Amino acid sequence: MDNLAPLARKILKLSADKAYEKLVIAPGDGNPAALADLTAATTAGPRTLFPTFVTQETEATCLLAALWLWQDYLTESHELSQSVETATGSYWHAILHRREGDFSNAKYWYARAAGHPAYPSFANNAAVLLRDSPADKRLLRLFSPDTAGAALTDLADAAHTLPPSDPRHRTAVSLQQLEFRTLFEFTVSAAQR
């Protein structure tokens, strides 16, 4: 992404082949190879993640929360996302709680983010991702901005104990990765509007 500073791009690339594959993570699962760069970005401030002027400080803070979450650092991501009282902050906060296995709390924060402007892009791309999947009525909830977060949470809850080879687990991971990319791209753009 050209609209990210080198430090942000570096954090994204660290373990990119293995990042965000677990549906549920535990405290201590963070990628130690990313810790120094994440700490440097936090110390310097979220504006340093962008090569150009940031107009929305809250969105930049959300991006920093997302980078901590990308590398599986729950505590640091939680502190940042919880400090942002916007729909985007609530959305990142919801994802964090889903990934830590606090599914009911995730649904609460998804409800606060209902109707987020990133949902249409997620729904369009999810339709493409799922087009060859077997019919499953539970997945229809992914296509409503009011129920998409709860649907993804329920899917992760049902699939996180399944083996990675199970199609339901693979589908949940693919949707989780799509959700991250969609909200991440939105957050980058929104910080520079």
Order of helices and strands: HHHHHHHHH
Helix content: 55-70%
Coarse morphology: globular
Query: Using only CA atoms, what is the Rg?
Result: 16 Å
**Percent range for β-strand residues:** under 5%
Summarize the biggest pleated sheet: none
Count of DSSP strands: 0
Cα distance, first to last residue? Answer: 16 Å
Q: Which structural class do you get from the secondary structure elements? A: mainly alpha
Looking at the chains present, what oligomeric state does this protein adopt? Answer: single chain
Uncertain regions spanning at least 5 consecutive residues? none
In the residues, how many domains can be counted? Answer: 1
Quickly count the helices: 9
Round the mean pLDDT to the nearest integer and report it: 93
Topology:
Elements: H1 6-13, H2 32-44, H3 57-70, H4 74-82, H5 87-99, H6 103-112, H7 119-130, H8 148-159, H9 167-191
Descriptive overview:
- The structure is a single chain.
- This protein has about 190 residues and is an all-alpha fold.
- The chain has one domain.
- Helices cover about 60% and strands about 0% of the residues.
- It contains 9 helices and no strands.
- The chain has helices at about 5-15, 30-45, 55-70, 75-80, 85-100, 105-110, 120-130, 150-160, 165-190.
